[in-house]
Amino acid sequence: xxxxxxxxxxxxxxxxxxxxxxxxxxxxxxxxxxxxxxxxxxxxxxxxxxxxxxxxxxxxxxxxxxxxxxxxxxxxxxxxxxxxxxxxxxxxxxxxxxxxxxxxxxxxxxxxxxxxxxxxxxxxxxxxxxxxxxxxxxxxxxxxxxxxxxxxxxxxxxxxxxxxxxxxxxxxxxxxxxxxxxxxxxxxxxxxxxxxxxxxxxxxxxxxxxxxxxxxxxxxxxxxxxxxxxxxxxxxxxxxxxxxxxxxxxxxxxxxxxxxxxxxxxxxxxxxxxxxxxxxxxxxxxxxxxxxxxxxxxxxxxxxxxxxxxxxxxxxxxxxxxxxxxxx
Amino acid sequence: xxxxxxxxxxxxxxxxxxxxxxxxxxxxxxxxxxxxxxxxxxxxxxxxxxxxxxxxxxxxxxxxxxxxxxxxxxxxxxxxxxxxxxxxxxxxxxxxxxxxxxxxxxxxxxxxxxxxxxxxxxxxxxxxxxxxxxxxxxxxxxxxxxxxxxxxxxxxxxxxxxxxxxxxxxxxxxxxxxxxxxxxxxxxxxxxxxxxxxxxxxxxxxxxxxxxxxxxxxxxxxxxxxxxxxxxxxxxxxxxxxxxxxxxxxxxxxxxxxxxxxxxxxxxxxxxxxxxxxxxxxxxxxxxxxxxxxxxxxxxxxxxxxxxxxxxxxxxxxxxxxxxxxxxxxxxxxxxxxxxxxxxxxxxxxxxxxxxxxxxxxxxxxxxxxxxxxxxxxxx
Amino acid sequence: xxxxxxxxxxxxxxxxxxxxxxxxxxxxxxxxxxxxxxxxxxxxxxxxxxxxxxxxxxxxxxxxxxxxxxxxxxxxxxxxxxxxxxxxxxxxxxxxxxxxxxxxxxxxxxxxxxxxxxxxxxxxxxxxxxxxxxxxxxxxxxxxxxxxxxxxxxxxxxxxxxxxxxxxxxxxxxxxxxxxxxxxxxxxxxxxxxxxxxxxxxxxxxxxxxxxxxxxxxxxxxxxxxxxxxxxxxxxxxxxxxxxxxxxxxxxxxxxxxxxxxxxxxxxxxxxxxxxxxxxxxxxxxxxxxxxxxxxxxxxxxxxxxxxxxxxxxxxxxxxxxxxxxxxxx
Lengths: 328, 380, 330
What we know:
By secondary structure, chain A is an alpha/beta fold. Chain A has helices at about 15-25, 40-50, 55-70, 90-100, 120-130, 135-160, 170-175, 195, 205-210, 225-230, 240-255, 270-290, 305-325; strands at about 5, 30-35, 75, 80-85, 85, 110, 110-115, 185-190, 215-220, 260-270, 295-300. The two termini of chain C are about 30 Å apart.
């Protein structure tokens, strides 16, 4: 039987799973992706992790430890820098060590991804992992290339170019009680990490809830990198966290180019980078827009009822302000 | 905003940092106002205007800036950083906040020289626009040299206090020792007076060096370690209860972590040597150092470790996740104290007292008996 | 009879015990503090003396709990010690091979890990009420069921309702929701016990090795539902010591004995009738710095206006701290 590698469906899995899948598949290594976040997974995580760590890391513990029971290895790369000069969050730097510090830790594969380690840093990391499964270096290099290709395709597929404002008529039809109308009438930008907003359990199904109300949702991953980088230049200081740079750049872009009707900033308690970036995004949305912005803080105790009420109020506010701005 | 040559600069309060900067400002002939000592009110002001999840250091230092501005400062001098700890943005966050509050002040942010040594030096020139960079740099280096000695004197205080026969005698000697060194101007004077000051620490205090003392290492986030207001003056509390204290970082170690001749800090190689088994990569801030110092203190025969960190601190939360394993593997008592604006002194002290009991009881058990006296007040 | 007196004054309860020379409990009092620690101690001492069947020659007095310093002044304590050590001492006295002490009081909770009778690790929660007895107190008044009946009711439940939420406020709204949708009361009551245990284990006891033998003490141990919830969650037997609700006082008496037997000192105990003294507590704002600390002082009436000031505390610094001669700092 082929060796199995577990991929925890948490944190950077949401960004890089296309590459990881492609890489291991080409090597003939069977991957097992953990099930969707659930109460069970969260409880495993809560039990094993420090109580003060942020929610998505607690969830990660749950996925990683659950997989440890099912696979030969759990894949937890140490992702330090994916762009020269900008770090990921400190927690990604210490992630493998944190999982290793639990009682009976799983066996972990943790290559270091740090582009400062030279031009071929990522390929070298891929070789290091690949050699665990095969002596055929050419095959590993091929797997690496396929992985990068899959990743680029995945990222490109997410990008939505040339988004325009939604027409006012459709908004009117919504006000008129046209229940059957599923056309988007409002567009809301969700500022937040993919591992929070794309995980329905963590985000209390935020995106689907909005879509069900006929609202178009855009996330930072839908924004072309070029536009993100350009907009992020307005930040008060060069951002040394690249994922947060993406959130900030996307939000700035949405505000500056009036792409969205409103922004929901999703912060997982107690996220360090977000607590900082949030200050900049809130300030920018107020001064350069103004674009209405609502921050939602989620933790393991977040209740659906509270979220639904706040979402309704925010959507009402956006609808009202859009109508009055258009003189409807 | 003031003309560059008429600036009145202020800084946040952090332990002995003030001693170094007072000296530097005097050398550069820069006008300055030190913020009033941090009090509960400073914290209250800082907390009110800070993002909820930001850490205590941001909140306290914001309070310092606001109080100093109210007292007449027009330029805030703050350190920067290039990640991944969020401290690197604090100057910008504080600038945004003070601007929102309507304060019209200038900010000078000292970014680490990693981002280019020349721009690092130019930042200093903002403080003293009519001086040459070469002159400024020379003065900065001398002030730093002096600050190293201030730190050594403080370290001596932490070591000696446990042995003093009269409570408060070492503290008094420390104040005198600082005053001995303070007037030193030239490099030669600094070296000479620093020696006198250290000697004063040892010789002017009656000590019982044969006393049985506990040895406790304090590790964690630098601001929590360096600023007594946020750590309830833990070193004094421990010292007065017969605990020899050693601290992982001193002011100059924090300013120049990569330089040799650290007072308490560790070199990059040392951090790696001691921490790698448990945390093999930097996680920003002092996270990896915390693990390294803990391992080293165990090797040096310390009785216990106190880990201090602000609530929501990212690097220290990582260290906190790993420290239980270190404590278990190396069989060392470890107490993590997480501090935020809600932390009360009573609970803080109660935990420390229990920690002292634990260490004395372990010592007794190792010696094969159960003859230990719990810490606290009352007959001995 | 010779004996030792232990007093534990917390924000919710005040406990007093007398131990004889063999460290056996000869009398104990458990009463509410009701925000008046001095009155609670004075009344407790009087009641305690009434319980004694023969006069006791007190050889040493220990004080512990959040009001330990105040108590130390009022009664003339020989040992003023923290409640973590006191609870550990009492637990190992009740069960010498104890490895884990679970303690839940009214306003705080603790976990203490011991090895060979020596505390090796501990944690104490004083910030979040959701891991303490006040969580159940609050919900009991909300449900209109006296807290004393909680345990009995919880034991009749086949299973507990899932009450979500670490925070007491959220747990309350979830509990109300469960009531509204018709969950049986006994399942809700047991569900609350499980929620408290879950919060305790997930937060306070996180990362601690919970090994048997496990002792569960503190006022909340009166609730059988809590014992059941702990045993289900830990999948291990949990023992409740006979004197579970006065363990802090027992520990503090043991500490007093430990200290007195190692010195030649005689006790500073002012007698069971220290209740006869009139104490005056007052407070003033310190103007020395912007902290404006509220300084509390306690004086013994001696006919003068201010009285004889016995102790002062409450400042962030030690400027005003004043301890009587028997309470010298360690």
